[in-house]
Amino acid sequence: MIRMFERYETLPERFFDEVLSADGLPREHYGIMMQRFGQFSSDDIRTRRQIVNIFFRNQGITFTVYGVEEGIERIFPFDLIPRIIPAWEWDLIERGLIQRITALNEFLSDLYSRQQILKDRVVPADLVLGSPHFRREFVGVTPPLGVYIHVTGSDIIRDARGNYLVLEDNLRTPSGVSYMLQNRQAMKRAFPVLFDRYKVRPIENYPQELLRTLQEIAPTSRPDPNVVVLTPGIYNAAYFEHSFLARQMGVELTEGRDLVVNNNKVYTRTTRGLQRVDVIYRRVDDDFLDPLVFRPDSKLGVAGLINAYRKGNVALANAIGTGVADDKVIYSFVPKIIRYYLGEDPVLDNVETWLASNPKELKHILENLESLVVKAANESGGYGMLVGPESTQEERDRFAEKIVANPRNYIAQPTIPLSRHPSFFGDGDLGACHIDLRPYVLFGRTPAIVPWGLTRVALKRGSLVVNSSQGGGSKDTWVIDE
Amino acid sequence: MLSRVAESLFWMSRYFERAENTARFLDVNFNMLLDLNDITAVDHPNYWSPLIMVAGEPELFSAQYPEYNAHTVTDYLVFNKKNSNSITSSIGMARENARSVIESISSEMWEQVNNLYHFLQSASPQQVHNDPYSFYKEIKNASHLFQGITDNTFSRTEGWDFIQIGKYLERADNAARLIDVKYHLLMPKNSAGHDFVHDSVEIIQWMAVLKSCSALEAFRKIYLSRIDPDNILRFLILDRSFPRSIAFSICSAQEALWRISGSSRHRYANKVDRLIGKMEAGLSYSTVEDMYLNGLHDFLENIEQGLVKIGEQIHLLYFAYHTPKIEPEDVSEALPFTGIAGGRANWSQSQQQQQQTLHARPQPVRT
To answer: A170 and B366 in contact by Cβ < 8 A?
Structure first.
């Protein structure tokens, strides 16, 4: 049938393949794409690869890897074969995420006011109050519209049967949205014809939607609220994204040193004096926001910002203290949280999770390290993680010690056989790579999902880790109308 | 606009102009040596040491290289990363500045800075020695392209004015240094310059000075082929219409400063405008004879020092982030450079800003 896919292996008994069904035929929504790619020679692919590489290099789209001195900037690897999600699957994701984010926002609102859910013992109080991301200073402070999580990106995976599961919630400062927008640009340049054959839902209005969300939460009644993006600076891994979003929204990109607080109001320092700021889309973690309140050694923040926030003179997106709800331990309670606040069953399931803080579950974890994935509750980006099946005995022993020493900090999940999708490895060979999906939800007056997501792909052979810091790349993701 | 953004635009432009000027000096020097038609002389230190003097850091050079010759000087001025004014360093700094304001410049401008950066990263000393003409041409063209792109894609806002100020202050400073050094080497010590006897080597050298400012044809249109030092100095320093002369650069910087502050002729709004107005008037009403009065070197050094002061005042007025009042006696501490006689004050971006960017490094990020 199709030359390029001749040697493509699906292993349907172990993994869900996104493109080919168990009988080896393309799924309906992939039909046109398979036909198109089947007509390409390896030269065609190489030419398109070049178009894309030049596009990314010239745009300076890079990310930073920590702990590597040489070549700190790298181009984010991009795979040419797009992932396609049909409308009916997307509807499920949309309903599931909006339900989930609504419930998590209720949860945060409750934690920072009456704490009813703790009193009702649905979530153990010690897990919440003991979390390093719970900011007790903010109990009793209500953000504008009662919204805490304005921009979120939950990670979604598919198990061996193709069920969509939520793996993780990112409620603090999820990144990746600029890659998604740039991926789309690159694909349009490289595959104009293919793009034309599908009814791909457009995504280009994301920056406007983000700006609208940010303007909606402005605390002041000024007619044209001044929104700024706050970045840690050019050495931050996601700096490109911060500047990209500021440019696309047409707002100022600021660093901590550009802002000053006077009389509990926030201003930018400009060539013509001080100018009032109403909303800060901050891409700086809580800990670094204000040296007077959090880490005193932070040079990234603004002294006095928190008081201005508490006074209601400026809005922050996302609000402070949201990390308590995307903690990997709290994650295991999300289905209960959804039932508690909304009285509904979760549309999207969680991945089964064991908590090391529970003695019975700890025993299970320690006995099954070889088959489990163990994660530190408060690390991200694939750091501080043990992948059981890929680990050595020595690594497992060392990890077991860490878990026993600090059980609150660890959770374990079964090794999920992430779904696979045809992709080009670094050397140009085609193979099945594991993928996940990160859609983004914006929450101003109401939560709304934007019709696409960032598909991350593990481009190392056999690897299950899709994080960019660990050799992962991304794909363009097409949500199509049938 | 944000003070930090204004400052980065200013320095982006300034470093880009600096790289172009350095490429011009080197290019012309190579060409001049070919004109001399004397193969053994090409590596003579006398032809190469002036380039280091223009850039003003002979100690840093001597610490790293045994002698002045084509290879060492080229390496120092093109590739040396310890030399913060080498072409590679300058473009690196221009790019860092552009990167920190990437949302404020057009993507075409960013692509162009990036292109030149990648060209330099992949260039080798061998490539320069094999074909210096093409190499320097590439850099000059890249700079012209950048100016052209900026001209056609950047809105005529305050940011544009800061870009112009950075470019023209740097150009004026470079021209002053180049003339100063060349004059010093070319003029007989006791001569006031009037009864100068040309020999052909000197004429070639003076033509090289003109060429390094792309001024030879423009000069000939006015003075025909009368290549004598007085005319050359009049042209490079005082000419009001040639875009690389000192007077033209100062006027252009002044116009940009006026657009920002709202000043006009006869009426200055702040210290920067006063200083640059004074300098502009000085140039407008000077003759070559005036320049010789206390010696050309003093005249040029006055301009260089004046440019330093203007740079400082721009920093204080527009970039210093409106930090709480700085008392006059604290100024010398607040600024890393204040009028060191004959030194390179205000030659580099404020250390304060560089440190800030370094400190901004460590926050781990969620991906």
So the answer is: yes
